Amino acid sequence: MEAHHRQSHHDLAPDVPTRLTSSEGDHVSDATENATQRRFSLGYASDQGLGNSSELISTMDASYYPPSGRTSVNAEVKPVSSSPRKASFKVSGGRALRRVRSSVRVVYFKESFYEVYGYLGLVMLLAFTLSFLAMLYITVVQVIPNWTANFLMGTDTLDNGEFLLMTKPSLTIVVTSTLMLSVFACLYLWLIVFMLSYNNETTVNSLAQAPDPTSLNYRLTQKLLPFLKRLQVQTGGAPNERTASIASAPPSKLKSFEGLKSFSAKIQRTSSFGSITASKLIFDFTSMQGTYHRYYDALLDFPKLIFQTMSLTTYLNNGFPLPIIFFYVLPLGFNWLVSFYRFQRTKPDPMLVVARVFYLFDLFFAVFAPIVMLMYSYYNFDLDRENFRIREETLTPGTFDRIARLFADPIEVQLVKTGFSNLQITEGGYILVKCFLNLLGIYKWKKVIAHLILANRSRREDKGARAKAHVHPHSRMHTMVGGFIFICCSLGIAIYTALSLSTSIANFFMDVELAPKTYDSWINAPDVTEAVRALAANGHLQTVQIINRALPELPEELRLCKDLRELILIYTKTQRFSGWMKEFTHLEYFHVENDFLHSSLQYLPPDMFSDMNNLRFVRTGGASGLTEYPSLAGLHKLSTLVLSIVRGLTELPNLDDLSGLSTLYIAEAVHVQSLPSLTSLTSLKNFAVFRRNEICCNGWATGYCDLTNFQCLPRVNEPTVQCVSDRIPAEDLAVVEGVGGFLCGKNITQDLEASEPSLESTDGVCRGVLYRECHMNGTRGICYNGRMQAVHCDVFGEYEKMRRLQIARSVGDPCDPEEEQWLGCSDK
Length: 828
Description:
The protein has 828 residues and is an alpha/beta fold. It is 46% helix and 7% strand. The strands form three sheets. A nine-stranded parallel sheet has the order 3-4-5-6-7-8-9-10-11, with no helix packed on it. A three-stranded antiparallel sheet has the order 12-13-14. It has a two-stranded antiparallel sheet with strand order 1-2. Helix 1 (22-33) crosses helix 2, helix 8 packs parallel to helix 21 (428-461) and helix 16 (322-344) packs antiparallel against helix 22 (476-502). The longest helix is centred in the middle third of the chain and has 34 residues, at 428-461. It starts with a strand and ends in an 8-residue tail after the last helix.
């Protein structure tokens, strides 16, 4: 196949006869007769001028490439004008060389994919394709993180879609990261197209051209010249050593295509910058076959190796499971060893097998490692989703028996969150790191593909010639120092990992009893203060979850845990919180639930949430003794707010800054006469005001005063409800109706006190047996640990209905025919 393209002389097939102008024929004849005696050098080319450089290339073409008869198609070289070619070189170097290239007709050969890339080519294509798809997925994660996480984990119906509480970065970071990742996805797709264009004439022509002296890459390498020159002296390399070896080599041992290409490129760069040594140094450091390319590789390898090692330390500090640690540390240690092997390697690697294997590991760390960790967390996440769907069907909104997060393993939940956080870009600094590592990887792959395409073309055009491997000069000191660094880093990773695993520091404190069997074990729960104090002393706790255990006050040592993210205290008898609570600036999840009859919550610091800008979930229950609620100002990321049994409050906090709030539940606010404005709750999806609330009696919410309703009847030791003339603003009512909110329905016909466990309802009738049929005051009920209290007789009916559905759908705990026959359980 013949095509017109701009191509330098050294890109011609070696066996193609050419017709040269008469002004050049003499040079060809003379060079042929004296091929074994003439020696060429860049210094000679520079001294004789660009005209003689052109003659030099033509002479070497004729001398070293005798016709081999491999093809019958000839490529003609015709001058652009009738003037000699020498005259055309008298303009500026780069422009003149391009003018000569435009007059060449080239013969192209068709290569197979295997000839160019070998078996690793298929692995490269697969890796690029997966990288492209991964980048698309990560881009989607930036735009809709919560939906993406819920869709993958199947948690879209749990906790009103806020089960995982994904981080919400700023709009600027979301837009920037989305654009950046979209560009990377396109670049990986471009690598696939570029790789498959190995037979495209335009691609080959563009790769064969000399580097553009005005390009950023070339100008950056110019800045490194002082360092490169010093390194050349230290390794014993001579400025003209490589040129002399090319010029003096016999035709059978000459690297024909690569030698002439580099020779021509050096001539063009010399004509542009007037520095043969500078151009040669740049080539020797940046070219895949350059004399000092191993230093260039080390310069590119160290940043990403350091970043990968830092990621390992993060995984160890966060207490990742052993399979993830081993899955990450083994390739990382291997990566360090391969880097050292490449650094000290002296033998040529024409197919770049070692480099390609090494770069495939780079892709694993840059793209696939976060995906692998996410897949691990997905397959190890165990939650009975169908069971919680039944809870949502049967239980009153707002009760924490519907909070799936409380029943899930916090370690598994945190692993899922961490897996997605590795995909989600939340900080500007991480954008820069991600951008640098991906650009570095794409740049290296581009160089590898370009080299393989040109090297294969060289082998095809000079099939009979066997080039002697060029021995790269090595400084023994540099090899020893480099080897010491690489090997020490690899061994250091193994030692650090082993020590971290053997002396691991706890990140989680969990002491949970979901169903106390007796009344005494619930009222007089074991005290865990000393256990919390001991683990908190290391300062690394991120999650504290205590249920049905005593913790009268938070130990001072907990203050050291600046990275605390989740604090869940349910029936712990914690009545007061210290002023240093506001120091937990990374806190995301805060849930305090007390027994309002025996140890209700009494005090929260007014400025407790002032610096907790990452707070996503707040629930305070059993807070009948709380008279003032902390300010919610600045909590723009808060998504769930539940105020339960807040009988001591007369006013609810301002909600104006809660633009991200999606769920608002209020229960037993018996002395609050009106709600704060709801118009700023632009993200609201779930709203409920239930049980006893004064706004449902005094006419503010319903439009009429009704003091005869059960919820509004006078109680002992409580002031009588007074009718008011104010009404809920129309815009607030529109917000409630817009989300289908529950506002003051006649949903409760018994006081909350009646549902609390007592000695009779626990030890008297249930005796710690779940789902047993029981009777209290002539009403049939079910023995159940409602709201994570002791197993007691519940007569409200919701838990009975829930259990019947579980048995009918075969979800939840296996039924016991002996105890649950009355619920529909049978031997079958």
